[in-house]
Amino acid sequence: MKLVLFRPGSSNEILPGLMTERGVVNIARTVKTGYTPELTMEGIIDDFERIRPALEEAAARGEAVPLESVRLMPPLPRPGKILGCIGNYWEHAQREPRPLNMFMKNPDAVVGPGDTIVLPEFTEPWIFMHEAELAIVIKGPAKRVSRDNWRSAVFGYTCLIDVSARGEGRMTWKKGSWLGKSFDTFAPIGPCIATADEIPEPNDLHVRFWNNGELRHNYNTDDMEHRVPELVEFASTVMTLRSGDLIACGTNHEGLGALQDGETVEIEIQRIGRMSLKVCDPLKRKWERGVYMGADSTNPEAVKRHRPQGAAKG
Fold it and tell me: Is pTM beyond 0.90 here?
């Protein structure tokens, strides 16, 4: 199932729905709605097994409206936590995995399909870059979950763009902190939450990202240094994970490029979906267009995998 939040027509009301091949099905009468859209989606996650038969019936027979007649919203407008992996992909000639580590990203930075990434109005960061990532949607509470039992803590998956203000090279702005990843609008997610049953193997998904039609990120999640079960185990060892929390799995940095005023960007992950956003820079800064970290991952004909032969997949 693919769960969404949406606005019907010109309405300002935000409703829960299912994205189907027939269009978007309103499930507001099927699920408990909370005081906020975020609480509504978290309630669906918590109550999913009980309401699954009713949702399956709605997906099959409920009245559907065309996707183009609704406005999709971020499926989790204000997650409790966003954890982001640092690095986490085999790249170039790398032959040893880096230690697993994560940072916290501002939940208020979330925007969704059709929204605008707004670059901040000061000149200190050297450049603003995109990082296309698979994000794990948690079903909680989850604490000290072993990697052998990781599925118990995973509700589903969504797409996330980890927008980053950077200094020289890959260095995040304000060396020693991760504030450069937490500006408002720097966490686009969507277009939906694909439930876990839609994705039997999260470490075999094709991730792509376009900037004004130019393919930049083009990689497979099989190339994670630390795979989804380990990410769940690591994060839940540090803190209790709640329903609707997100773990962004990191990116293949070979596809990094600048974001700048007037561009249209699109992210697509196999089995989840595709969404598009605009970029606005009030200061109208300019950077060289194209890929900054090497062009291997932008080959449209094949996804190059860098995982060394025999590398652990635990």
Answer: yes
